[in-house]
Here is the input.
Amino acid sequence: WKDTDLAEMIVEGLGRVALARDSWREMLRSCGALELASQIISSVDGHPKLLKYSFWFAASISGVPWVVQQLMHNQRTWAVVDAAFCTIIDILDEDVEGEWVLSHARQSSGFDVAAVLALIAEVVVQHSTNAILQGRGCHCLGLLAPMVPRS
Here is the structure.
């Protein structure tokens, strides 16, 4: 990536478009935007801001399931784990305010909460020496735990 500043602006802009209306989210999804975000994530190295913007953009279109899929496939890569954890927090934390909030993704995301809890716990254990990932992973666990259906 030779011009990450421009790529960050483009990805952020697409995310803002996706937040504007359901019809825009659907159009971006049908045009392959999730595949584009996946390609950016797999090819960007050493650019954590672009990585986080790419996660945020994809989550603005598809919510938690896409983020969880990326986390499953990249759980050993700390930068991807960090971006996934931050995005899950942006979706689920009701105390987050401002332009990064993905609250619409909270309502539209159907996912297996128990499976996501297990995955995040596993990833936290894998990165036991990284205090930042430990904190963000625990934040995710705290946000997900109350969502587990009671039997």
Remarks:
- The mean pLDDT is 88.
